[in-house]
Amino acid sequence: MPSDRLRWRDVRATTPFRLTLLLGSVFLAALWVTLATSYFFTAHELTARSDQILFTRAKSLLASTPAALPEHVRAEIANATPGLNYFALLGQDGEQVVGNIALPAPRRIGTPYAVAAVPGVHGPLRVLAVRTMAGETILMGRDISPIRDLRIRLLQILLVSGLGGTAMVVAAAMLLSIGPLRRVRDLERASHVIAAGGLSHRMPVAGRRDELDQFAVTVNLMLDEVAHVVAQVKNATDAIAHDLRTPLTRVRATLHRMRQETQLPEAARGVTERAIEDLDAVVDRFAALLRIAELEASGRRAGMAPVDLHTLLRELGELYEPLAEERGIALATDLRGQPLVVADRELLFEAVGNVLDNAIKFTRSRVTLRLLEREEGPVIEVIDDGPGILAEEREAVLRRFHRASGAAGVEGTGLGLAVVSAIVHLHGFSLAFDDAAPGLIARIALRAPQG
Hints:
Number of helices: 9
Largest sheet: 5 strands, antiparallel
Oligomer: single chain
Structural class: alpha+beta
Helix content: 40-55%
Low-confidence stretches: none
Distance between the termini: 22 Å
């Protein structure tokens, strides 16, 4: 039975989560491309505008005569916005003639370039150097710190939008996945109940008419047909067992009286005894079938009460010890802890007795009846050193009339474990088989009383 707690690995494996994440990733990629494109073109446009302003100022200064150029530069400085535009005029020898900024020798002439830091200037600057006809150099700088700040702000917006969008997409994927995952858990729980034999149980339908509802409706229709067919087969089997048990018992009684009251030839007496034995086997099969039908139909919940497992298992050991001794088998009991279980004592006695009887039939030298106490509840184990049951047959032996491949030549009806399975299912317990190397472990997991 799956846990009710939803785990991260379960959520991330769902189709809604993956589809939402995929579509969200496409959306985020488009968002990032848009923001990155906006960042690039905005920064490029602002830089280009600064360069255009520098070229315009350079064109104006270059139009001046050499004699008037210093005054023209001073006028530009006086009219410039403080802290934004800077000008300097360098003579042919590289010495500054006039200016409001001290810049190093120009890197290149006629092409704007960036200067990261200049003493006494906030910066960074975008600088343009041009040469006059007289060989002088005009340096013009423009503070581009607003452009830098805008770039940083756009980059921050890009990162925050990307991270925030990613978080929102993941959150949306989880929220869209939790509902379907819970419905899948409900379907899974229902399937476990049905697989355990509850053919009257049905898959839950939420009424949304989505793919899960369509699946549930389809499975429910299939279950209706399966339950109908199984019910017909079981009813026919139970009816045959019920109708034939009485006449066969009469025939058996007649043969028994004939053998007791009539002087029969030795050959006829042998045939009569074999016929009586065959009739006993058939009647036992019918009785087992009717027993299974009774358990499946009645529910028999009224007899549920706390049962002392130590006392019950000791009684079983004492009951089967003579049979084990007769066959040369060592029967041991290993009872640990003081567990109680809520069950119908007679039915539980019958179930463990059937398992113990099977173990004595098939074991080679020893059988151990063991009681363990675990966190989930007490566990009854019957361990033998016989041929065991093949792993692929361990589910099949719980069905009616199925006998394991190693059971040939051993007396039995093929219904004992079916009765045990019906009793275990009635109580909500579980029956499983494991390898004892050599032999078989038949394990009945019980539930401790609550509260």
